[in-house]
Amino acid sequence: MSILPILIHPDPRLKKVAEPVTDVNDRLRKLADDMLETMYDAPGIGLAAPQIGVMERIIVMDCVKEEGEEPRPLVLINPEITWASEDLSTYEEGCLSIPEQYAEVDRPAEVEVTWLDRDGAQQSEHFKGLWATCVQHEIDHLDGKLFIDYLKPLKRQMITRKMQKLKRERARS
């Protein structure tokens, strides 16, 4: 397994819609393993393929945070929200592509999601709490949407300028 470089906003690839996966194969399973490794290393709770420059509809996530609790890595291929609650929840979201920037985002508190697993089998699950927020955040990445797109223009521009500065600093070092 290898740790992959994560794209930093603004990068045009983060604004593109990812293509559906047509074949669940060994290449895709290796990609999923590398994505999980990259996510855990970052450290984060979710990662979408476009964040590593792969324009395919695949996300990984693991929202288990309790010390001593078993990790629960999920690989979701072609994930789709089939139902969302009317009740909203507000979480302070962050993003591996927008490091050290956080903002409150309102999203449905609960969602039903269907996807293909790493073996190509159809899966479905009801997510709530942090899991619901995370899966929606990652599916947004597949649709070219970032959490800052939910913010007021001024706040979004401020974060974008910080990211441009961070990218310049990283390029110099």
Structure description:
This protein has helices spanning 26-41, 130-142, 153-172, and strands at residues 46-48, 58-61, 74-84, 88-95, 98-108, 110-116, 122-128. With 173 residues, the protein is an alpha+beta fold. It is globular. It has a five-stranded antiparallel beta sheet. Strands 4-5 form a two-stranded antiparallel ribbon. The model has no long low-confidence stretch (mean pLDDT 96). The relative contact order is 0.19.
Search tags:
173 residues; alpha+beta; Peptide Deformylase; five-stranded antiparallel sheet; two-stranded antiparallel sheet; 3 helices; 7 strands; 28% helix
Please write the CATH class name.
Alpha Beta
Helix content: 25-40%
Q: What is the name of the CATH architecture?
A: Alpha-Beta Complex
* Secondary-structure class: alpha+beta
Mean pLDDT: 96
The total count of strands amounts to 7
Strand content: 25-35%
Written as H for each helix and E for each strand, in order along the chain, the element string is HEEEEEEEHH
The largest beta-sheet arranges its strands as: 1-2-3-6-7
- Biggest beta sheet summary: 5 strands, antiparallel
Rg of Cα set? 16 Å
Shape: globular
Uncertain runs? none
